[in-house]
Write a structure and sequence with these properties.
Elements lengths: L4 H4 L11 H6 L8 E2 L12 H7 L12 H11 L6 E4 L2 H12 L5 E6 L4 H9 L2 E6 L10 H11 L3 E5 L11 H10 L4 E5 L21 E6 L12 E5 L1 H10 L7 H10 L3 H24 L12 E4 L3 H9 L3 E2 L1 E2 L8 E4 L4 H13 L1
Helix pairs in contact: 3-10, 4-10, 5-6, 5-9, 7-8, 11-13
């Protein structure tokens, strides 16, 4: 009883966050570790979320359409509800796209280094992966002219583009995205904006939402601090949304997540205050790391890359101090770690620990 060859050879994609077995070996408890490896809001959800969670009815199936959340999100984003599909995290939306649109052996182009789940979704579908590599020598800034040539050369079924990119933090403005879209004549552009809330000058990509060859993916776990509930969405023209619904499992978003998502949309003050504090903490880290002789790479997101020579060894040394950063070896960047700011006092502890090691 063997699985499909694509599944038999599939390897898990590493992510940030604690490896509980590793922490146990080191004698550490998860709650004792300062986690700079996850690029999410470190200040937690708004106070209203706890009340919403405790008042959620648990003895009924959740709404398969996530109607209340979808309508609230449509109002918040100024789009039609028909333009949205709610997912159990943005990763579910990625896999729905692959399931719905990638025939076996269809070419798919991934702009790398980037989020590893794109490749996992492609491999599950049996798609043929092509890679467009962003160069370290250019500080990982994407040359859109070169990407356009790559798209026209491979004529892929789809292109995965993370904006701002994870882990490099580079953010493309509207003219660059429209240039890429123009090359995707018979290609679906999958624009992953999981971290767009943390950019300082975002442009409104949702103005392009009715294009026939574009789907925008966003997370609600990063900015609203709902990672434990898993919540994300896709925005596209109604034809694409209807196609994704055909392969979406029923009750894919639980009732607690739907309730929490609807609640956070009504309190943008909390998110805006958190974003201000995150920006200050990021500035503090960049200044102090530079003073230590390290050179953080420029980033438009709430995280940045740091060249430490040997990322795995650097991570292990910090972990012995009860501090975790993201080893970027799995991104193909074994010299780099990714750091996402936490509170200022916690950032001070990180700087002290780095100074010691």
């Amino acid at each position: 009883m063997l699985p499909r060859p694509e599944i038999e050879n599939l390897q898990n994609c590493p992510h940030g966050g604690p490896n509980f077995a590793e922490l146990e070996r080191l004698g550490l408890k998860p709650e004792e570790v300062l986690d700079f490896s996850v690029s999410a809001n470190p200040f937690g959800p708004s106070p209203e979320v706890r009340e919403a969670i405790t008042s959620t009815v648990l003895d009924r199936y959740p709404d398969s359409e996530s109607s209340e959340l979808r309508n609230a999100l449509a109002t918040h984003l100024s789009v039609n509800p028909e333009n949205l599909i709610i997912g159990n995290g943005s990763t579910e939306i990625i896999r729905l796209i692959a399931s719905a649109y990638f025939p076996k052996d269809s070419p798919v182009l991934i702009v790398e280094p980037t989020f590893g789940e794109y490749e996992i979704a492609c491999r599950i579908a049996g798609a043929k992966i092509f890679r467009h590599l962003i160069q370290e020598s250019d500080n990982f800034k994407l040359n859109t002219d070169e990407l356009v040539r790559s798209i026209r050369s491979h004529q892929p079924k789809a292109v995965f583009l993370c904006n701002p990119n994870n882990p490099t933090g580079q953010y493309l403005k509207r003219d660059k995205i429209e240039q890429i879209l123009s090359a995707c004549e018979d290609t679906l552009l999958i624009l992953d904006e999981a971290y767009v809330s943390f950019t300082t000058e975002p442009w409104n990509s949702l103005e392009l939402v009715d294009r026939e060859n574009l789907i925008i993916i966003r997370s609600m776990t990063k900015d609203y601090a709902l990672a434990g509930l898993r919540l994300g969405y896709g925005a596209a023209n109604p034809a694409i949304i209807d196609t994704l619904k055909k392969v979406c499992s029923p009750w894919n978003v639980n009732a607690v997540a739907q309730s929490a998502g609807t609640t956070v949309l009504s309190n943008q003050y909390h998110l805006n205050r958190c974003k201000d504090d995150i920006l200050k903490a990021k500035g503090f880290l960049l200044e102090k790391l530079s003073a230590l002789g390290l050179n953080p790479l420029p980033s438009d997101a709430n995280f940045f890359l740091l060249n430490v020579g040997n990322a795995a060894r650097f991570r292990q040394k910090l972990l012995r101090h009860g501090i975790m950063v993201r080893d970027c070896t799995s991104f193909g960047l074994p010299k780099y770690v990714r750091i996402a700011p936490r509170t200022l006092p916690e950032c001070e502890k990180l700087i002290l620990a780095i100074g010691e090691i």
